[in-house]
Here is the input.
Amino acid sequence: MKVQITGVTSNQLNIRRKKNPLFSAAKGLLDFFENEKYDVENTPEVVDTDILLYGLYSLNSFVSGGFLKTAEVLTNAIKENKKIALFVDDWHLDSIGKNITACSKDIDGYLRFGEKMLKRKATPKEREEYEKALKFIVSSSAPILVHVLPWLVDDEECKQNYAKALNVDESRVILYDPTMFLNWDLPKPKQEYYAKNKAWVVASRYDFTRFVNKIMKPTWPVIYYGCKKVPNANFVPNEGDLVETAFRPNWGLVSHPYPAHLQGQWRNKFVFSGLAKSIILAYGKEKQDMTTFFDRQDIEKMSISVLEALSRAQTAEMLRYMDYDKSAGRVKEAVR
Here is the structure.
């Protein structure tokens, strides 16, 4: 079987790019299909395939030349009655849902906005494809793959929240865990042993200083990565370097709280905590039924030996939920 993976972002159109080569949903699906011996194409062009796997993203993608270009792939697959499945890439589900719905309700308005970005008029063919592709995404019965943490792949509340955020029928949403799909080609640790600091690492493009100061209230120092708004924040080229530079030398990784429509979505930080032999601090549904996920106050009271034991226990508990066959079956169901 031949499958084409495409979409409208650089991450979907160039999954092998070097900047962040490991951890997107697109990369997980690409690795899965290649490991399962599918014939895989990753291109924005129309190619002759049996299955089209099309990645969704948010507003600027759907009013840019990226969507005008790949809408042809989608409309061609519709015309030829090919199997089409959609997948959510690593972005806010509510943004994707609101943006696509808004575009489909005001096609002319959003297309004009897109033409300003392109600095040219859309051709009649592009306009027709833009309209057909948007209507298909919003109104068809095509399944939508949404990646989640492994202990939440059967969680009905997550499924309901995601469907509501995407503004689609719940029957379209298929939950899967891509953790074990990825070829984890992280570099080996530079050191065999790290004398870890009792410190928390908050790694995000967004400013979570208010959450840290008002809600978390840590007694350990907090080290920030990735947000330009945070004074003295640190920056690294990619997530692989983040594991080595930030996570391995420090005991605490923070997975800050997420709203309902994002709780349970796949987060690399959980895998990174295991790879770095550190402790993950989680909130809300992301710690649901996890016996080794403790509160900040309890973790900060632990001795080094107890932290070492907890790190091993957290990794073991997460691994127990990682079921390749279950998630592989979900993906195959979506493209069947």
Notes: The first strand starts at residue 2 and ends at 6.
